[in-house]
Specification:
The chain is α+β, with helices and mostly antiparallel strands. The protein contains 2 helices and 4 strands, in the order E-E-H-E-E-H. The radius of gyration is 17 Å and the shape is elongated.
Length: 82
């Protein structure tokens, strides 16, 4: 298929602009998504969530069984307003 989005720093090309944007983080070293447990950085939120699940047993639910959000930099076990 056609890959019109070319990296200016290497030979890689992509079919979506968003994929090129993620790829560019490899060159810049940018890792904006940080693990809530160990602060390891990731270029993609999905990779951070997978790490949290595999390395730390994070399930995405609190003790009451309701789903929780994991905003960047916030410990999922801290409940605000209680």
């Amino acid at each position: 298929g056609e890959r019109p989005f070319q990296c200016t720093l290497c030979e890689k090309a992509f079919n979506q602009k968003s994929a090129l944007k993620v790829h560019m983080k490899r060159h810049t070293g940018e890792r904006p998504y940080k693990c809530d447990y160990c602060a390891m950085g990731f270029t993609q939120k999905s990779n951070m969530k997978l790490h949290m699940k595999r390395a730390h047993g994070y399930t995405g639910t609190c003790h009451s069984g309701t789903a929780m959000s994991t905003d960047e930099g916030r410990n999922p076990y801290v409940l605000l307003g209680e």
